[in-house]
Design brief:
The chain is globular. The protein is about 35% helix and about 25% strand. The protein is built from 16 helices and 16 strands. The chain is of the alpha/beta class. The chain folds into three domains: about 60 residues, no CATH class; about 130 residues, Beta-Lactamase (2-Layer Sandwich); about 250 residues, P-loop containing nucleotide triphosphate hydrolases (Rossmann fold). A seven-stranded mixed sheet has the order 12-11-13-14-10-15-16, with helices on both faces. The two termini are about 25 Å apart. This is Transformation system protein. Belongs to the GSP E family. It comes from Halarcobacter bivalviorum.
Length: about 450
């Protein structure tokens, strides 16, 4: 049963002692004087509340009830503010600011990466993405969505009258950047705010929670003057964070660094960051064509997406530049296959490719050891850690690349070397009790 199918009356929730609700493991929904609705779980005991009403029970997971009750006061405050705003004929900007700032502050405390505002059939829903998982945070009347949508658009300098077309914008709060995306849907509109906290970009690889052999590879990359470095993995595997961390450590007074991004996520002082914008003819191809005229030492290409961007990356790394880029592939070997599919010249690959780092993010076990606590939002996991494999393109691999059946030959060569694959790195993290086997296989197989 989904939480968002029911509008919670937080005034009714507030009529109970929160400690009693936590003990009974129930979440009140509504009360019409005869019937009352409650979210319950298998371990609930509403008899502890001594109610003299007919109770309708709606069963959900215990962790959802615990998550809602752990910070119910925040939701009650949001409810009071949104109710007050909905009653007013004209929106009170100070009240709306109070509502929105309270929501953002809560999101930052909970380490949220994205805030989702969605219109549903009878309600509006606010969801938080925490450690890769979406969690329902606040449900309210659908009519309120128009007010919150207008406020977000105004804050992001977007057209508040435009709901039939997608829009992109940005704003800042407490020295943190927020990227806004709006999209029309059949039920109204969807707005997603990505939280771009520069503190997430580490200036030391020891803080990225990678294994020692991966950190050693990163340190070798920092010493390179030229060549192509590829960071690979599926969407949401932490490629951007790794690239930004590399750039942050390569950044110095005697180097010119240029990045080509779509869009720029984190701002780095002294680095020339280019935000791709097709609307003003600042397209990916035109920027790539002219990038070398800017006399860079280091180039970051946000994503190698086609044969053209790959050819520019190879040419730049061949002419004395260090090029860092991301590419979608599931492993280092698959990356080589993908490069060949994109018509990469084998001679250029052999001459330029230095390292392929393939990575994933797995949930990190909380100190509660999977039991679930307030600190980890009753998930049993707190934060994520990197697992990776690092393929250094040595002379042997270069030799095999120029031959027929090169993928089979490289695979056989790596087996003889006892090459540590992502799975091996993940199993080590399981042994160290940093994650679970179930979580590892879920991430590896997805």
């Amino acid at each position: 049963m989904n939480l968002y199918k029911h509008l919670i009356n937080y005034d009714y929730v507030n009529s109970f002692e929160i400690s009693s609700l936590k003990k009974a493991l129930v979440l009140p929904i509504s009360n019409d004087g005869i019937y009352c609705k409650f979210f319950v779980c298998k371990n609930s005991d509403h008899s502890l509340l001594a109610l003299n009403l007919i109770i309708e029970e709606i069963e959900i997971e215990q962790k959802e009830i615990e998550f809602f009750l752990s910070d119910i006061k925040s939701r009650i405050k949001l409810f009071k503010l949104s109710k007050e705003l909905l009653r007013q004929k004209e929106i009170n900007p100070l009240k709306m600011e109070e509502f929105f700032n309270h929501l953002l502050t809560k999101a930052l405390i909970l380490r949220v990466s994205d805030i989702h505002f969605e219109t549903l059939e009878i309600s509006m829903l606010i969801r938080f993405r925490i450690d890769g998982e979406l969690k329902s945070f606040y449900i309210f009347e659908k009519e309120f969505f128009k007010s919150i949508s207008s406020y977000i658009k105004m804050l992001s300098r977007l057209d508040i009258t435009k709901i039939r077309n997608p829009q992109d914008g940005r704003f800042s709060f407490e020295k943190i950047d927020f990227r806004v995306s709006t999209m029309p849907t059949i039920s109204g509109e969807s707005i997603v705010i990505r939280i771009l906290d520069n503190l997430n970009v580490k200036d030391s690889f020891d803080n990225l929670n990678f294994s020692s052999h991966i950190i050693k590879s990163f340190k070798e990359i920092l010493c390179l003057k030229e060549g192509l470095i590829l960071i690979t993995g599926p969407t949401g595997s932490g490629k951007s964070t790794t690239l930004y961390s590399l750039i942050k450590q390569l950044n110095s007074q005697n180097r010119k660094i240029i990045t080509i991004e779509d869009p720029v996520e984190y701002k780095i002082e002294q680095v020339q960051q280019i935000n791709i914008n097709e609307e003003i003819d600042l397209g990916f191809k035109s920027v790539l064509k002219n990038i070398l005229r800017q006399d860079p030492d280091i180039i970051l290409i946000g994503e190698i997406r086609d044969a053209f961007s790959l050819s520019i990356a190879l040419q730049a790394s061949l002419t004395g530049h260090l090029v860092l880029a991301s590419i979608h592939a599931n492993s280092s070997i698959e990356t080589i296959s993908r490069l060949i599919d994109l018509k990469a010249d084998k001679f250029l690959l052999v001459s330029t490719l230095r390292y392929i780092i393939s990575q994933r993010l797995v949930l990190k076990l909380c100190t509660c050891n999977e039991k679930g606590c307030e600190k980890c939002n009753f998930k049993g996991f707190l934060g994520r850690i990197g697992i990776a494999e690092s393929l250094k393109i040595n002379e042997k691999i270069k030799k095999y690349l120029m031959e027929d059946d090169f993928l089979i030959k490289i695979e056989n060569y790596l087996k003889k070397l006892n090459f540590k694959r992502i799975l091996d790195d993940g199993l080590k993290k399981v042994e160290e009790q940093k994650t679970t086997l179930k979580e590892l296989y879920k991430v590896i197989s997805s």
